[in-house]
């Protein structure tokens, strides 16, 4: 468990409810503080931009937090999250990708595609995202400032 993370805000649209509940259980067992921001009903469609906004608002006042957003493709949540200046989201399918995206780009939101990823692989990606450090070299910080 990464002690530098205050909370993990996790949310999904209707297509990602099952994967979200699995990740809450698995990450909770690792003693992460998980805050579930919905949705709970896989049979009632919701719009992914509204779900991403919930996570963005929480993370704005909690800079030590991380976010996990899940929708069918993962791309919708990634796009919606990246609208917010304080969020850097990446859709990951492999743990190496999550590790590298943290290391190089200091992502603070992991986007997952519930339609495309095995639940166990999603958990491995989430662990890699949460456990990987940012390489705070001057060049990386300079680049991030340019997009913030």
Q: Could you please describe the fold and organization of this structure?
A:
The chain has 148 residues and is α/β, with parallel strands linked by helices. It has a single domain (8-147), classed as Sugar-phosphate isomerase, RpiB/LacA/LacB (Ribose 5-phosphate Isomerase B, Chain: A, 3-Layer(aba) Sandwich), CATH 3.40.1400.10. It is built from 6 helices and 5 strands, in the order βαβαβαβαβαα. It has helices at residues 17-29, 48-60, 75-81, 95-105, 119-131, 138-147, and strands at 8-12, 34-36, 66-71, 89-91, 109-113. Helix 1 (17-29) packs across helix 5. The protein starts with 7 loop residues before the first strand and ends with a helix.
Quick structural overview:
The protein has 148 residues and is α/β, with parallel strands linked by helices.
Q: Provide the structure class.
A: alpha/beta
Strand order of the largest sheet: 2-1-3-5-4
Looking at CATH, which topology would you report? Ribose 5-phosphate Isomerase B, Chain: A
Number of domains: 1
**Please, what is the average pLDDT?**
96
Keywords:
five-stranded parallel β-sheet, Ribose 5-phosphate Isomerase B, Chain: A, 6 helices
How does the SSE layout of this entry go?
Elements: E1 8-12, H1 17-29, E2 34-36, H2 48-60, E3 66-71, H3 75-81, E4 89-91, H4 95-105, E5 109-113, H5 119-131, H6 138-147
Parallel strand pairs: 1-2, 1-3, 3-5, 4-5
